[in-house]
Amino acid sequence: MGSYYEKYESFIDAHFDGFLSQDLPVNICEVLPCDLNTALSLSIRSRINGEGSHRQLSSTIKFNIKKSMSQVPIQHCKFIIIERLPSGVFADPFELEHLLHRAVFSDVAVFGDTNLELPSVLSNISVVEVHKDIGPNILSHNKNLLDFTVDLPLHSRYPRLDESGYVQVRLKAPDLFLQCSIQEKPHNRSCLFKLESDDAEADLTWSIPAGKRSDAGIVRAVTFVSALLSVLCIVFFTQIRQLKVMKQC
Q: Residue 119, preceding bond cis, omega within 30 degrees?
């Protein structure tokens, strides 16, 4: 994603697809099958856990080997998960950094709109890239090999006003890649594959509480009265304090 954002200012699905096909050597590896998806079976199940504005996006990944490739000299493999977050949701880079220090992920980074203070109407799409090490023997067995869950902490931004009292934010299914280092002479070469999930639909919808436009007038009036009373109180007690000082003098 770092290479993508060096070329583009914002994340657009069409640009990302073109970037994968033109700028990155995806699904091209001489020592592995051209279509690795024929040898693998992948399932992704995602759900949103928690309550309020702080949630966890939990993605359970089941990875099955349908065809063993034990003859391939693989040195190391890892999953790369790309989560595209719409404007109403963000991931805190500092929170993710703590998870990285605790070795929850082998690497993680946030790209795009990382301004945590912006409301949803002023923000843009952000992207989280998560790396998960899975060891050197991932492709050397002909059995159900991996079943693990990635928990990504998310936060909702201040949503726009909506008469229903809620704003629906749609989270698209993540993009999943497999990167393996192949032991070759005289150097190691890395192969990157984009994996296709067996799940036809894996998108999620997060209902975020929002203020009603019809209540905006009442909120403005209450806010104005509260601010005015606060100012009058400050002026009143300031005057009393000055009078006490003058009497003491």
A: no
